[in-house]
Structures are given as structure tokens and as C-alpha cells.
Amino acid sequence: MQSKTNMDQMLAESFRNLALKMPIDKITIREITEGAGVIRPTFYNHFSDKYELLEWMIRTEILDPVIPLMQIGRIRESLILIFENLQKDKKFYKKVSRLEGQDSCENIAKKFIKEILHPFINKQAGEKKLARRGLTTDLVAEYYARSMAFVVLQWLKLDMSLTPEQMADIFEYITTHSMDDVIAEMN
To answer: How far is CA 39 from CA 24, 28, 107, in A?
Structure first.
């Protein structure tokens, strides 16, 4: 009998192969299970739908590996690792980045990045209160999660040829400089 992790990986590989051949929204559970060589009920023992499977893939392949780096405050290295993990299967993730609606890649990425950032920000803030009224650790986590997700998705959607290090430099630059500074340097 297959372990849960092995079965999850088999279903993910089948989904990945199908996504490279057809639009993700057209992929059926039957096609995923046929590709994995299992019956439909097996899929539902692991995931409720293909979008939950996709969430699992993004979490395990892209985001879980950065958690240890985040826990020790290595933000730049975390971002580079996200780009490197995406680059390993950029063709697939480029297709995923184009998903729209509730189950969009953007929504999945923002949710997971915020989950990763929130404990880090809370740990860094400690008992200190943020200096600005209304500025909470939750708001800060949300802002940076949206910013990171945006930069990552632009890299995928526009098929940018920049390296993970170059993309990390861009993110670091735009998050550490004012909009006025960034615009002034464009001239």
C-alpha cells in the first residue's frame, strides 16, 4: 500500500503532466487519477479537489523549504529559494500563475506567504508595539505577502529571464526604498 506522501506525489505528478498539456481549469479528477493509476475515491481520500492538490504542491514544493530560513531571519535567501524552486518547473508554474478567481495562484501564494511571514514578524516585533497607530503585525505580514506574491507572479507571467538572485535584489530594493527614490532612479 502506498504511503500518504507517495500517493500525494503520484497525484501531483499526474496533475502536473496534464497541466502541461491542457488548461488547468479543464483537468478532471478522473484524468488525474487515471494518470496516477488509481481510482477516483483514492483522490478524495487525499484532496477535496484539484485546487487543494495544487495548494499542497505549492506549499510542499515552493514554500515549506523556506520556513527554516525564515525562522532564522534569512529573508533574502528565502526569496531566492522560492525563485529557485519555481525555476525547477517554471513551465508548470507559469501556467499555474495564470489561474484566476478564488483558487488563483496569487491567492494561494499570498495566503501561504502570510502564514510564513506572520510568526517571523511576531518574533521580530516581540513585545514592542509598532510605532504607527493602526500598524499591526498582521497588516505588515499581509503587505509583504502581497508584495512577494506580486513580484513572484510577475516573474512567472512575464517569463522574465532574470535570475532568482536578481529578482531578490529587485524585491529588496523596492521594499527598502520609498516610491520617490525608486522613481528618481528611473531617470
So the answer is: 20, 13, 30
